[in-house]
């Protein structure tokens, strides 16, 4: 990252405020520093505290200036129409995750005939942003339809925050309180579980008997290899967001990877960043969701995940549609041939539709 010239700090002090100069190392340009200073001031105005407002602004500016992400400083991040609480120790929701969540909700809303019920499983739920936004969208598109959503994460901090986010968005009237719809109509649960635990699938089958009718399995798992984490991840992410959310462990506590190592039979190599996808595909093979959406960290990983589909260990069959979604899956883009909504590529002999604009962001499977 290039160093900032002293003249920029003088301009920030002169043209905006000394506090903007303090924000510059994190914000990098005057416009961003001015915006963030405004948001910090608005946040302090809107929240009650025994600490005097001026001092609080200084405290928050000082934190932000040290590189702590704005979402942890302010405590929230917009996600669709929701406001998601953010706390250190739990990954901050990203705009690309929001984009595919909204696209998924729009696909589910187009199903004909409309489903008589909807069941959704979100593995590695973090703040709970994905099931919460799906719930909000589906309540609007499927009024009266029974909807069941289950978010799972290994981290107790994440599960506590996901539950707090549900309550927070009810208090903001972004989501209905449980009492306003009968308990059998909408069910949102968050459970602390390791997705590699051998007891995961029996637990899911037991806790959600209708899981055989799973409409969507969605997951944004840790997908950055240890090497990429050190060399290519932004410093703010590396220093302040939880490694548990970003980097798969070298060996997992169960599932296929461990069987491969313990049994010593399978020598199949998996990229160290892809460990979670092997497990997600195993889970999909058992639960047979109608749709699967797995976030990935770029085009190369998307291609590797599609190749895993063909692997004997995954056993995922019957998904007629395999797609790669870019960052904005609903966007069309202009080319010399006109406006294009989708492209086609061939991966491992299989035709794959590529949607939207930006970097490869997700692999989508559908049997609908
Ligand atoms: C990339 S974050 C995604 C969070 C959230 N879904 C989002 O999109 O913002 C990955 C999440 O996986 C969780 N996680 C890591 N290992 C796990 C495991 N073995 N089982 C379940 N969750 C796990 C982390 O705690 C983290 O919250």
Task: Give a nutshell description of this structure.
The chain is an alpha/beta fold and 368 residues long. It has helices at 6-16, 18-27, 30-46, 53-65, 70-74, 95-109, 129-141, 156-171, 200-207, 226-232, 235-240, 243-246, 255-263, 275-287, 299-310, and strands at 76-79, 82-85, 118-123, 147-153, 186-192, 216-219, 291-295, 321-328, 333-335, 338-340, 342-347, 350-355, 357-366.
Tell me what you see in this structure.
A hairpin with a 2-residue loop joins strand 1 (76-79) and strand 2. The strands form three sheets. Strands 5-4-3-6-7-13-8-12-11 form a nine-stranded mixed beta sheet, sandwiched between helices. A two-stranded antiparallel sheet has the order 1-2. It is of the alpha/beta class and 368 residues long. The protein has 15 helices and 13 strands. It has two domains: 6-67; 95-366, Rossmann fold, CATH 3.40.50.150. Helix 2 (18-27) crosses helix 3, helix 2 packs parallel to helix 4 and helix 3 packs across helix 4 (53-65). The longest helix is centred in the N-terminal third of the chain and has 17 residues, at 30-46. The protein has helices at 6-16, 18-27, 30-46, 53-65, 70-74, 95-109, 129-141, 156-171, 200-207, 226-232, 235-240, 243-246, 255-263, 275-287, 299-310, and strands at 76-79, 82-85, 118-123, 147-153, 186-192, 216-219, 291-295, 321-328, 333-335, 338-340, 342-347, 350-355, 357-366. The chain binds S-adenosylmethionine. S-adenosylmethionine binds next to helix 7, strand 4 and helix 12. It comes from Chaetomidium leptoderma. GO terms for molecular function: nucleic acid binding; protein methyltransferase activity. One of its GO terms (cellular component) is mitochondrion.
